Each structure stands twice: as C-alpha cells, then as structure tokens.
C-alpha cells in the first residue's frame, strides 16, 4: 500500500503518440537515485483516438482551402477542451483509487509533451490545485491567426503524406526502421511508441492507432491559448522545457509568464540538438530535465540533496 507521501507522476503524450511512448523515460526515472529515495507511482494514459483509445467510427472529412492548404474536419479538432476534460477524468479516477487504498490525497505531478502538455496545463487552469507540479515539454500554445496558417499547412501536409496501414507487422516495423522523418528518434523510444501506436486488424494487417487523417485534424484545430488572468490561476509550480531546433516552442510567451508570475513559472534552457520531438529524440536528457524539476518540488525536495 502506498503511503500518503508517495507521489504520483502522471504522463500525458503528444499528438499521434501513445502512453507507451514514455517508456524509455519512465524506466530511467524509476532507476534514478531520486525516485529510489522517494518511492513513486508512475501512471500514463491514452487520449481519445490514440493508442488503446483508437476510434475510426467517425470518418474524417478532408478538403483544401488552397492547393497547398489541406484541412481535416473531425471531432478531434476540439482536442484542447476535450483532452483537458479527459485529463481531469483520469485524475479523478486516480484520486478515487487512492481513497480506496488509504484515504489520503497524495502529491500528483503532471508531465506532458506537446498536446499532452497543454492539456495538463489547461486542467490546472480549469481546476486550480489539481496538480502539485507540472513539467511541460513544448505545449502546443498560441493564438490561431492568418500568420499561423502556413504552419498548419506544413503540419497537416506532412502528416497526410504518411502511410497508415501495412499488410503485416513485419512490413510495418520495416517501414518505421527506415522512415526518414523519424530518423532522429531514439531507437528504444521508437520501439516503445510502436508497442501502443500500432493495432492489428482481423485480417492480420497493421494500422496506426491514430490514423494520419485524424492526427492532421489535431493540427487543423486550435492550439491552446490563455489570457494573462488565466495563466495566474495555477496553484502549483510549472516548468517549461523545449528543443533548441524547434520552431514551435513559444519561449517568448513563456518568458513573459515567468516575469509576471515567477512564483508559478520556470523556463528551462533549450535542449541542445533537439526538435519539438525531444522526448522521443533524447530520452536521457529529457529524463535529466524532469529529475532537475522534480527536485525543486516539495514532494521530492527532502531527498534531493544528493545526486539525482
């Protein structure tokens, strides 16, 4: 039975990924001196239309605004609000399980990437005090304006060009082993993603759990954006991490939040040679960033005096 002091780390994945993608990072965390000194529960979950929650019952509708501007209509367009609610539901389930396992509320730290990062953040904004700390790797953040349309064109276009189905698992694994767009990914991270990111059909064929049309619909929806007042609502420490090579890291926005609310926000140094997919490219450095941020939180501060 976990004690009232046992923290829980809740991992939220990015768009198109799945809960298993965190495997190389959670393994390293559990092997770290910090977590050996502070027994910790590790939990992760899939968002709707991803991994174990794959759902192709609603056909996406593809159309073009211009010759180079594909757009996809699908319920996942509303992912910002629906994923925040999904996150809150997951937290409530965790709290219910904790109540049955001893009755006391335990520290809860959210760790998210991209879509998952903004979803954790919005959950804390909507329900201040839900988390005891957040570590956010490049939240999908920013207002949708005419200036951001080329970025949507790029993300949707690249996604729609991907393959989504293969005749066998062997064919699927061979495809990903040589897929240039994922060449920078750590091989263990890629294998972990494929554990939950592929599903088998009745005929033995293999498909992506999150199909390219559905993932493209995520990018065709609005990213998260919060008013200055909303950014002051969280009651926990929030750390931002980003990749040195990423064009999606809204570091200017995050620095402004840190200046307004230094008691809430912290902005980490860019991760060298990393893109927006830093948690998949460099699990080792991502783990180190998480450990450094955990050591600053009350749940771990007492045991963080020695090496992480």
UniProtKB/TrEMBL annotation:
Pfam families: Abhydrolase_6. SUPFAM superfamilies: alpha/beta-Hydrolases. This is AB hydrolase-1 domain-containing protein. It comes from the Eukaryota. Residues 9-284 form the AB hydrolase-1 domain.
